[in-house]
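Lecture 7 notes: from sequence to structure.

We start with a single chain of 430 residues. Read the sequence below before looking at the structure.
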Amino acid sequence: MKILTYTADNFWRQLEEHLSLREQETSSKIDDDVKSIIKDIKQHGDDKVIQFAEDFDKIILKKNEIKLTNLNQFYSLEKLNKETIESFRLAIQNVRKFHEKQYPSDYEILNMDAKLRSVWKPMDSVGLYVPGGNAVYPSSLIMSVVPAQIAGVERIVCVTPPSNNLNPYIAFLLDELNISEVYQIGGAQAIAALTYGTQTIKSVSKIFGPGNAYVASAKKQVFGKVGIDLVAGPSEIIVVADEENNPEWVASDIMAQAEHDENAQSILITNSNTFAKKVLEHIENLKKNLSKKTVVEISLKKNGLIVIMDDLKLSYQIINKIAPEHLHLQSKEKEIIFKNVNNAGGIFIGDYSTEAFGDYVAGTNHILPTSGAAKFSSGLSVTDFMKKSSVVEINKLSYENLSKHVENISDVENLDAHKLSVTIRQTKQN
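Now the structure, written as tokens:
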């Protein structure tokens, strides 16, 4: 892991250079390919769904197989680990309990005798992209479905790349969460199908879920026709720890992010060179037993960073600059730092609060802004599956209170019809 010293004259420039190494270059070829895929799905629907399944996924699909109607064929409760099933059910329960508090309230005010209301309604339909292949995350399905259900979305659609062996825990959770609309379609073609619809798949209002570069490009290209959640980048964490913390625990926290992806970013901020050295030694020792040892090694070599600074209370400056997806505060100054942190997706406080609890069972949502997006966005919540309308009700009294002001502003903006729509009502009509 690269080491930077906070007191160095060029620290902020060095930090900027390090962060820029992880920025994904926009591939014009991918964008062009995706544009072509979207056009094909829009024009030919199911025929192209079937063709792309064979071309990209090496799966022969029939039209009546695009929709998965019998998820039981992919799993058996008797064969699934019973303790794991209970863990998933606990996760659903805890995520639901936390997110139920997010349901927004309508409100009403009387303003110069005009009745004004703000009214929240669920979206009619949403599409949830569930990755397949090597990146299978049943927990992400829970994080997406539960807040959508709390919001009251009537039609929740899941799409996942076609496979002869759908992950049994994904299949189980789709049943457990009562998702009846599941389609075998992945990649950019899934995003296009959810946007424009096919003969089998009806379009949706908003699309959620992570995916590869083709999925990300497709979401960017269809935005406006449908809503999208965000364009997710590689996972990231900042851990703040001092010499009084357990270096072995901190090493495990660093590796827990690094194993996600070779482009994942793990940063340690500490006030002790000795502690940093101990953390690195423990990483060397602990990674030997990891199934994703190579991914961890490449990730830490490419994007791993250690920042040494004398006063950890000032670490909030670095944190707010980076705006990490995850932030784990373990040092004794954790409460002071927390009060000054403005930009972070999910914050974990204390030695025992490893980020994995947030990923799975604590109850908060693990779908969080990445790549600095925490400066302007938040983690997934119930309101992402809803929209609000403003309601204006003008009676005779409020008309008299407000009409002259509308006329005045209409004159300035030279919008005569605006003014006319008010003044015309000054004459009594039957």
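The radius of gyration is 26 Å. Keep this in mind for problem set 3.
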